[in-house]
Amino acid sequence: MKYSYYPGCTLRTKAKDLDTYARASARALGFELEEIEEWQCCGGVYPLGSDEIATKLSSVRALNEAKEKGQGLMMRDLLVESDAPLDVQAWVLRPDVVLKIAGGLVKEQDNFLRTKLAAKLTINELRDAIKAEKVKADRRDMKWLDKMEKAVDKIPDDPEQFYAEIKPELDMDKWHPEGYGLKA
């Protein structure tokens, strides 16, 4: 069995041993790493781009090639599983976590309240994952989750009331309330 493999520039220069070990480990486990053709370095050019799309091109190309080989979901899952246990942001972007949060959101009809609910559900998902040691986090992260939850709880359920509370802090040259159904 072959799996699409994106070695990146570092494994070609500073970490050649890691590339060798990864390929040897794959063989020992009974599969082969097949390097993605015409991959682009993600560290030197794309993240420096001013265009948001340009920063994603390398990853999109890698996923498209894996998809063409019938390995799209597997590639996605490998990328997700490699990052999710190490980072709370990656954790909440796991497809299963996104679907769980979305399942709660569809029950709320009001857009403003749905936004508050999204924050609360995300905080709860992260808290559960940290407690279960599914995602690496410092104990201080739990305190931040508590602070965020208290901040969300303080937001009134009425969008007009919330707007009135935060309006003095807003830069009205950059934010246009009428685009959100609010009066300037």
Description:
- It is a single chain.
- This protein is mainly α and 184 residues long.
- It has eight helices and two strands; from the N terminus they run βαβααααααα.
- The chain has helices spanning 16-28, 57-68, 72-83, 88-92, 95-105, 111-131, 139-154, 159-166; strands at residues 2-5, 32-35.
- Strand 1 (2-5), helix 1 (16-28) and strand 2 (32-35) form a beta-alpha-beta unit.
Structural class: mainly alpha
Helix content: 40-55%
Relative strand content: under 5%
How large is the count of helical segments? Answer: 8
What is the first-to-last residue Cα distance? 61 Å
For the biggest β-sheet, the strand order reads 1-2
What is the makeup of the main sheet? 2 strands, parallel
Count of strand segments: 2
Point out poorly predicted stretches.
43-47
**Order of helix and strand elements from N to C terminus:** EHEHHHHHHH
Please sum up the structure shown.
The chain has 184 residues and is mainly alpha-helical.
Would you spell out the secondary-structure blueprint of this structure?
Blueprint: E1 2-5, H1 16-28, E2 32-35, H2 57-68, H3 72-83, H4 88-92, H5 95-105, H6 111-131, H7 139-154, H8 159-166
Helix pairs in contact: 2-3, 5-6, 6-7
